[in-house]
Write a structure and sequence with these properties.
Length: 354
């Protein structure tokens, strides 16, 4: 994608703004997925949950993030229309930095659930980030399709890097002897990965506060309020001087198409979340029910997705999108999910039986 350093009309520094928004996009999935490799061990370490209920409570903790996120998304979107994209994005980054750190300090189920709910409240900025990227592309003449493909890439990077950090940095006193003398990491064995995520959100917050430009043109350049005029003058101005030609409006897609798109995205998200939740629990479970992986083993196994996502997002998908319609690709991917699930299921049952 070739871009200019500054927008031709609106004076927005494209590279800088796009880079900062991309960093903001990474922060959200990073905070959402960092617990996947160690949540099983965290719940077990609480000492208040029986082994057979660990999976259930892992689902509760995860839902505690995504339910508030879902409820807040529309509210934050409306708020960003009134006060601007930048303040809402800054609020999300700051809240995420604090809440993910609180989760790392969890010593009980109640604290873990509440801190994850708080984290979800402040990580509902995906829609605002998408809107900011769309406005940046529109205001500066960028190709919107390529701009949004980079959004998908950054989102995928967060979903890969998050579990890696969570898996490799959980229980640092056991893995890194130099860290073993730090009392905080002994008392809170899952604090370090959450601290890394918090520091990242804090750094992006400072950079965004100092260098991010507002993309909402209604906030950036508000229109002056109209001056009231006499009624007779307004009536004369409303009389047409020439006959207005009939304008043909473009065909509008029915509302049902929008709902089908929403339903499709919901199904895809459900599939992704189910995998993200079930796999770490299955991998960490004892050998009679799972693979008995450590948090580091789970992170290593999840890291396989990293190169695959990069190749698909940067090379394969743009190529396929140039040769096939988006609808055809969607149908093919949905069918592939169904087939792969049936192929993997017997293998999973065999592993669970030992």
């Amino acid at each position: 994608m070739v871009v200019n350093s500054e927008g031709p009309k609106h004076g927005i520094p494209i590279r800088r703004t796009f880079t900062i928004i991309a960093a903001i996009v990474v922060a959200e999935p990073l905070a959402a997925t960092i617990l996947f490799p160690f949540v099983y061990f965290m719940i077990r370490d609480f000492g208040t949950v029986q082994e057979r209920y660990v999976g259930f409570w892992a689902g509760v903790i995860t839902s505690a993030f995504f339910v508030p996120q879902m409820l807040m998304a529309t509210l934050l979107g409306s708020l960003s229309d009134k006060v601007g994209r930048k303040p809402v994005l800054l609020l999300g980054l700051l809240g995420s930095a604090v809440s993910v750190l609180l989760f790392g300090l969890s010593k009980s189920l109640a604290w873990a659930v509440c801190s994850r709910a708080l984290c979800g409240l402040f990580n509902a900025n995906a829609g605002v980030s998408r809107t900011a990227i769309g406005e940046l592309a529109h205001n500066t003449g960028l190709n919107q399709g390529r701009a949004f493909s980079l959004f998908g890439l950054c989102n995928s990077v967060g979903y890969v890097v998050g579990p890696l950090i969570g898996g490799f940095l959980a229980r640092p006193a056991e893995k890194f002897p130099a860290v073993g003398s730090i009392k905080a990491f002994l008392n809170y064995p899952y604090l370090l990965p959450c601290l890394v995520s918090s520091l990242y959100s804090s750094l992006v917050f400072v950079i965004s506060w100092a260098a991010l430009d507002e993309t909402n043109q209604d906030i950036r350049h508000p229109l002056p309020k109209p001056v009231p005029r006499p009624a007779d003058e307004q009536a004369r101005e409303q009389d047409p001087l020439l006959t207005t030609p009939k304008v043909t409006t473009p065909e509008v897609q029915p509302k049902s198409s929008i709902w089908y798109c929403i339903l499709g995205i919901a199904c895809l998200s459900l599939h992704a979340i189910i995998f993200d939740e079930i796999y770490p629990i299955f991998a960490a479970s004892p050998s009679q029910n799972g693979l008995q992986f450590s948090s580091k083993d789970i992170a290593a196994s999840l890291s396989v997705m990293g190169p695959i996502i990069l190749v698909v997002q940067l090379l394969l998908y743009p190529y396929l999108n140039d040769h096939f319609s988006s609808l055809s690709l969607w149908r093919a991917s949905a069918a592939a999910f169904a087939i792969l699930n049936q192929i993997v299921e017997p293998e999973k049952r065999g592993a669970m039986m030992g």
